Amino acid sequence: AMLERIRGSMPALVTPFKDGAVDFDTLKDLVEWQIAEGSHGLVPVGTTGESPTLSHEEHDAVVACVIEVARGRVPVIAGAVANREMGWIQSFADKGGFALCDGFSVHPYNHHDRDASAEDVVRWLDELHKEIKSKTKKSIPLWITEIGWPNHDGVGGSPEPVTAQRLLKMNLLLASRGYVRGVWWYDLFDD
Fold first, then answer.
1. Of 5, 72, 58, residue with least CA distance to 27
2. HEC per residue, 61-96
3. What phi and psi, each to the nearest 5 degrees, are found at residue 92?
4. C-alpha to C-alpha distance for 16 and 187, rounded to whole angstroms
5. Residue 184 CB: number of other CB atoms within 10 A?
6. pTM of the predicted model, to two decimals?
7. Residues 127-155: pLDDT tens digits?
8. Is residue 50 within 8 Å of residue 31, measured between CB atoms?
9. What secondary structure letter does DSSP report for 108?
10. 77-107, pLDDT tens digit by residue?
11. C-beta separation of 120 from 113 below 8 A
12. Distance CA 63, CA 44 (A)
């Protein structure tokens, strides 16, 4: 099965643009190049894929394009959800998108709800998993990326010790969730 093939290098693809629109020809070439160069899987609309700026339709079209070009040669992990926005997830699920991908990359960084606890974020992820499962009738594995809270002394920031405590607690909570296949964050500091 495809999930057993998830390993090694799985780049978050950039979403190329030309004249203000997604450049699907360049995207197709990028997918072919990544596979030819040995990537073990692909993550369209991941953290480098412009998820916060794409419309729902563009997001769907980018993921569909990558799945179509990959043609099962490598796993495709659809992503990412910036700032825990559910509208696109529901739209993608309603259109059957989760049935076509091998997993889902979620980006629950707390830009908008900086007072959210680790429990709040994990509760949201539980709701997300439940929503996906209700639409697909199966458990779609989630990869959690870019977890964290802004940690600065200004308005809306969290002191570093509070951020560290939240990250530790969140990782411990996520380790108990069978639907979570991996958790990553970049670092503990806002650089």
1. 58
2. HHHHHHHHHHCCCCCEEECCCECCCCHHHHHHHHCC
3. -60, -45
4. 27
5. 11
6. 0.79
7. 888 888 888 887 888 888 777 777 777 77
8. no
9. -
10. 888 665 556 777 777 888 888 878 888 888 7
11. yes
12. 6
The CA distance from 40 to 113, in Å, is: 35
Backbone angles phi, psi at 167, to 5 degrees: -65, -45
Q: For residue 104, give the H/E element and its range.
A: strand 103-106
Q: How many CB atoms lie within 10 A of CB 62?
A: 23
User: 3-class SS at 25?
Assistant: helix
Provide the H-helix boundaries in the chain: 24-36, 56-70, 87-94, 97-100, 118-136, 160-175
Cα Rg of the chain (Å, integer) = 17
As a whole number of angstroms, the distance between CA 95 and CA 102 comes to 16
Give me the residue label for tokens 């405590």.
Answer: 165
Helix (H, G, I), strand (E, B) or coil at 116: coil
Task: Please report how the helices 87-94 and 56-70 are oriented relative to each other, as an axis angle in degrees rounded to 10.
Answer: 50
Cβ atoms within 10 Å of 34's Cβ, excluding its own = 21
Q: How far apart are CA 172 and CA 167, in angstroms?
A: 9
Task: Give CA 42 to chain center in angstroms.
Answer: 12
